[in-house]
Amino acid sequence: MTPDATPESPELTQLTGESLTDHLMDDTSWGRGYALAPEGEEPDRTSNNAARREEISSQVSEQFIVKGKRFRKPVNLGTYLATFAACINPTAPAKLLSEAPKIRLHRDQLPAEPKRWKDLDQHPFGAEFKKASRKEINGCIQRSCFRQAARVSELIDAEILPLMWVFTYKFDEDGYLYKFKARLVVRGDLQQDYGDTYAATLAAKIFRCLIAMAASFDLELYQYDVLNAFLNAELDRPTYVRCPEGYESELGQLLELKRALYGLRDAPRLWYKHLTATLEKLGLQQVPGVPCLFSNDSLIVFFFVDDIVVAVASKNKDVYRQFDQQLRAAYDVRFLGELKWFLGIRVIRDRSQKKIWLMQDSFIDKVAAKYNIAQESTKYPAVPLVDGNIGLSTEEPDEQRTKLYQELVGSLAYIATYTRPDVAQTHSELSRYLQNPGQKHVSAAYHAWKYLIGQKRLAIGAHGDQSSRTIYTGSSLGSAETEPLFYGASDAAFADDLPTRRSSQGYLFMLYGMPIDWKATLQRSVTKSTTEAELLALSTAASELQAWNRLFKHIKLDLEMVPTIYCDNLQTVGVVTKHEDKLFTRLRHVDVHQHWLRQEVADGRISVQWKPTNLMPADGLTKILVRQKHAEFVRQLGLRDVKVCLLKAEGLDSPDPASLTHWY
Prior knowledge:
The chain is built from 16 helices and 24 strands. The protein is of the alpha+beta class. α1 runs antiparallel to α2.
C-alpha cells in the first residue's frame, strides 16, 4: 500500500481515564471554631454583643485596674483576616481554614526525572507523570496529530520513526515545582527523509533594543505562550510513527503523523512558517532582514519559537485588543500578562521612573546548583578572570574534565550573550581552550562563575525618563559631557593572542543607556600595527552600525542625529576623518576597510570621534582588567545592582526623547 492510501483511515478520539482535576479543592465545611453568623445579623461595633455582657458591671474597683504598660499576646493575624473575610465572602475562606498548608517542593528536593516509561512504576511521582502523559496524548488527538495507519507489513518502503516520552519538572522563577510535564517527541535523530530544517530565532540584540525602546516610550509589553505550538503546523510529507509506550492497546501499533510533532528535524521550520503566515494575515509585516520581528503602524510583535511579545503604546490599545482576539482565535494561547520573564531573563520594570532592567539571577543560581558551586561564601572574586592568555594545557587529555569545562564555558556564553557584557571578554578567552583544557582552565571557569554568583544582581537597564546620561569626563575642571541617545564604541588590543599573534577586538552599542549590542572576539587575520588592528575593529563596528540604522528606519525610530562611534586611537581616527592622514599599507584587506570607512564618514552616514581610554566603554571587551578598571568598566556599561537602582533614582539632565513616528 502506498502512503497516499492512508487518509481514509478513521480519526482517533480522545482517551478516557482518570480525571486530571482530582487535585482541585472540593467544597469543605468550616474549620473548627468558626461558624456562619445567623442570617440577617451583621456585626455592630457600637453595642456590647458579648455572650456574658449582663454579668459585667460598671462599678469596678480601681484595685482591679492594671496600671502602666501591659504586654499583649501576639495576635493570630491569619485567624483575624480569615474571620474578617468570612463576613464578606462566607464561602471563600472556609476551604483555606479547613486545609493544611500546601508544601512547595524545590528543585533541590526532587528525585531525578524518569528517563523511560518503565521507570514510572518505581518513581515517587510516577502517577503524576502518567496523568501528564494522558493529557499530552489527548492534546495531540484533539489537534488531529495522529491517524490510524495501515499495517506495518503494508508499509515496507515507508520510514517509520519511534516515539519516546520526555518527562520533566516545571519550576517557577524561584525554583519551586508547579507542574509535571510529559512531552511526546519523535526520534528525529533516526529521520532519513527530510528537507530544509532551518528555522530563524530572535537575536538577543534585537530583544534588548526593543526593551530599551519600551522603556523610553513607555510602551506596554504583553506576553503570550502558544500551547503545543508545533502541532499547529501540518507536515508536508507522509510520516509514520510507532505508538508511544503505555498506549499501544488504546491507539494501535502504527500511526500516521499529520502534524509537526516535537523532535522532527523540520518541525521548527514548519512552525516558523505557520506563525509568520498567521502574523501577516493579522496585518503585520516582517521587518526586512530581521527574523521573528513584525510591525505595523500601531504594534511591534516579536517572538522566540512559541513565546510571543506585543509592544504597544497606550493610545493604540484598541488596535491591540483586536489583535489579541485574532491571535486567540488562531491559536490556543496562554496570556501571561505584562512581560516578566523571557528566555530565562528576568524583566524588572519601574513605570514611575520609566526604567526597565534585565538580569539572569535565576540562571546563575541554576548553574551554581548544577555544578555545586558554593553560594554561601561571603567573599567572591572582584573580577571574572585574573589573567588572560592562560596558555595551552600540557596535561594528558581527560574526557570528563573536557566535558565539564565545555559545559561551564557554554553556560557562560549564554549569559555573556544576553545580559552580562562584563564577562564577554572572559568567555572569549576561555573559549580558546575547549579542545584539551587542563585543570587551570577548569579553575578559571569556576572563578568566572563565582564572580557571577557574587554579582548576580547586576542588571543592564534602559532609562526612559531621559534620552541621554550625563557622565563625568575626568578633566581637571570637573566638567561633564552628555552621552548621545545611541552610540557605539570600538577597541582593539594589538597582537595580544600569543599563540597566533592575532589581535583582540570588541565593539559596544548603547541605546537609551542600555548596552544593546556587544562582541568580544579575535580578529581573523594578523595585522602589523596597532593602527591596522584598530582600523579593522572600527570597520567591523561601523558595519554593525549600518545594520542598526536600517533597523531603526524600518521600525520608524528617528534618532534625529548622525550615529557616532568612539575610538581611543588618535591615529586611527585621523586616518578615517582627515583628508591628508591616509594610511599607506601593503595589506590589501586593511586598505579596503580604510577606504570604505573614509567613504562612510565623508558621506555623513557615520561619525568617528576620539575618546580617551579611561572613558572607553569597549576597553573591557578586548583585555582582562584589574579590579579598579573592571569596576569602572562595569559602571560604563550601565550595570547596576537592581536593589540599589530601584530605590535610588539617578537625577540626570537630558533633552527630550527622539520621536517615534508613524506607529507611536
